[in-house]
Amino acid sequence: MDKLIKSIATSGFFRAYVLDSTETVKEAQEKHQTLSSSTVALGRTLIANQILAANQKGDSKVTVKVIGDSSFGHIISVADTKGNIKGYIQNPGVDVKKTATNEIIVGPFMGKGQFVVITDYGTGSPYTSSTPLISGEIGEDLAYYLTESEQTPSAVGLNVLLDDKDKVQVAGGFMLQVLPGAPDEEIARYENRIQKMPAISALLEADQPIDALLKAIYGEESYKILSQENWHFACDCSRERFEAALKTLGQVELQQMKEEDHGAEITCQFCGQKYQFNEKDLEEMIHDKAQ
Ligand SMILES: [Zn+2]
């Protein structure tokens, strides 16, 4: 089970989330069989979505769409405020590394586009907000979104590290926000620390990544932990849901599926689960429609 920890400086002027998202991103990689660059891009989007969902109160749902114009296509992820997240990337097969360093390349394959956030408070009218992609590296795009769209100056660091077989080794990150009324001197101290912070990948490689992240953010300043949330990859798809979707098709289309394809198979985009409907299932749907 992954965790997200919410903390606040004792001064009350800075707050930070730190996350270990390793299991979530591992699960996503297994379900979608993503190659290196696609794994990192999808993983970073999932972490960004966890941060945005943790920022919501009550029972709501947050969708993140990273809509680029390059090889990855779209990356879509949905999280709720109970610690469930699911997501997929249109092109799971992008696998590009720098020859000299083996560093995985992400930004250029996202390309230009939008970082879109849809918040559904369960009222039936979701709220959509978006900002342009700054680098396509996701972390910077989220920081820009939070600063511009939510008017809260934010620093974000997030990443996914792969082992030598390109499997997820560790994933996680942080978000740091300045709260209203922070004294200039205190802002300068935090800015200075963030600038000198070790690379996020070095922090994630520590024995205790959560502690390493907190230490890098707060340095010697005192802070307190407000809460801890557990997170995991979970899809809410079901046979019933896809059956309902099939039933919205016309009688003629269902008849065609029955006669020509002898059934229907639907794959859930978010988790890869396959659902089969045989001729008899389709026949029942056609029969129900006729009545
Ligand atoms: Zn599913």
Automatic annotation (TrEMBL):
Under oxidizing conditions two disulfide bonds are formed involving the reactive cysteines. Under reducing conditions zinc is bound to the reactive cysteines and the protein is inactive. InterPro entries: Heat_shock_Hsp33, Heat_shock_Hsp33_C, Heat_shock_Hsp33_N. Its main location: cytoplasm. It comes from the Bacteria. Belongs to the HSP33 family. Pfam families: HSP33. Keywords: Chaperone, Cytoplasm, Disulfide bond, Redox-active center, Zinc. GO terms for molecular function: protein folding chaperone; unfolded protein binding. Redox regulated molecular chaperone. Protects both thermally unfolding and oxidatively damaged proteins from irreversible aggregation. Plays an important role in the bacterial defense system toward oxidative stress. HAMAP family: HslO. SUPFAM superfamilies: Hsp33 domain, HSP33 redox switch-like. It is found in: Cytoplasm. GO terms for cellular component: cytoplasm. One of its GO terms (biological process) is protein refolding. The lineage of its organism: Bacteria, Bacillati, Bacillota, Bacilli, Lactobacillales. This is 33 kDa chaperonin. Disulfide bonds join 235-237, 268-271. The keyword Membrane does not apply.
